[in-house]
């Protein structure tokens, strides 16, 4: 994480800065908005701006918007600066932290707004197989497409690849294509020249140039606008970019990693993703299995999260009971590792003793894990039944399906033609014509008062 502190906060936030740096963050300071903007334009970049509330925050946010720089802002000030705090939040600041500072509070906000995690823990053979492939290709410059459901750890896998590559001592730059509005994303990626658009008061370096010599992660690339994909394709193919408003190509030397939680072949077929771009990105595909498909990781990750959040909350070390482990293994984990982490954090806080029992493992709405398992089971059964019905129709003609539907509905209504027509949404005349046709074809029609169903 890269943190930029703006205004006269350096001394007041020294302890929080130290905590952030101890956690692997890079911290820089800028005394004024102008110095901060110059730093951001130059390619040094930041993941979070921590700003003195006495700085003109509305002007800062307006300048960021005008220059198409997408970075979250957190305001800091004394409790007597209530009006300034309100203005900062109204202008677009994400949070407000009162001063004098609580270093741990600031560190928590920093972690919540812009946290990077390098934890990569696995035990299951399904994940071990993916990691083995990652180790094989980490040292190359091949583009890698990392796919899997949300919460499976795609960004962590990208950092794993970078750390084992020839570019490990060079920048690792990540950009979330889903989190940045379409009209800002092009400038974020490629930068812009002075005067390229209203508000472009100076040249700004984009993520491609920030990552020069290192690795660029295009997170959730399936969300990128189709028109921008063409410019991205050229940058990947030719290793040059065009800043917005620029006339001279800028060479870049980077490795491209991309993630997606969507099936990109389906996106290609539906015209939302370029096939040629997919081919460029998908030199190697690392498909991360869902957590429910790697049960060997569930307990290992659970123990890791319990230990982490016990320490983070100043509690004695918690442990999971065998009953709690069994429940964790039965849960569907639709949110994968991210959901598991949040659930175990909650369990640490709700546990009445040092041993975490199933009663402490609850969903955000307060329901127990067993309720979630039962709900998922019912949903799975319903989905399976619907799938079976759909499959039973494959290979049959529309006329056959229509005939069986009409006969079954008539049987359900005990042969009452009027009720059957109402359910089917057709006129009684149409129904009678259909029944006469079926009778001529030798189909046995339910008589009034008779309940009977087709063999299909």
Task: Describe the protein's architecture and organization.
By secondary structure, this protein is α/β, with parallel strands linked by helices. Helices cover 47% and strands 13% of the residues. It is built from 19 helices and 14 strands. The strands form four sheets. It has a five-stranded parallel sheet, sandwiched between helices. About 1% of the residues have low confidence.
What's the quick description here?
With 456 residues, the protein is an alpha/beta fold. The chain is built from 19 helices and 14 strands.
Mean pLDDT figure: 84
Which term fits the overall shape?
A: globular
How big a fraction of the residues is strand? 5-15%
Instruction: Let me know the number of strands.
Output: 14
- Total of helices: 19
Strand order of the largest sheet: 2-1-3-4-5
**Helicity range:** 40-55%
Pfam families: AAA_lid_14 (PF25601), HTH_8 (PF02954), Sigma54_activat (PF00158)
Keywords: Activator, ATP-binding, DNA-binding, Nucleotide-binding, Phosphoprotein, Transcription, Transcription regulation, Two-component regulatory system
Organism: Pelagibacterium flavum
InterPro entries: AAA+_ATPase (IPR003593), AAA_lid_NorR (IPR058031), CheY-like_superfamily (IPR011006), Homeodomain-like_sf (IPR009057), HTH_Fis (IPR002197), P-loop_NTPase (IPR027417), Sig_transdc_resp-reg_receiver (IPR001789), Sigma_54_int (IPR002078)
